[in-house]
TrEMBL record:
Keyword Transmembrane helix: yes
GO cellular component, one term: cytoplasm
Principal localisation: membrane
Cellular compartment(s): Membrane
Keyword entries, A-Z: Glycoprotein, Membrane, Transmembrane, Transmembrane helix
The protein's name: Uncharacterized protein
Amino acid sequence: NPDGSLPLITRHWTNFPTDLILQVYAWNIIYEGAIPRLQECGPYTYVGHERKENLTWSSDGKEV
């Protein structure tokens, strides 16, 4: 930008504005010589935040 600030999309790329959430469910299959039973385990949740650090720009300022 002419004022030296980064464009909005670049700011969001370098510091994603929301948390990334991944939820995983697993199943135990219990089979003791009879009809199998399913036991749900979870959710196991991972919460992450994406932030890029130590960015180096090209001399013309067009590439990271």
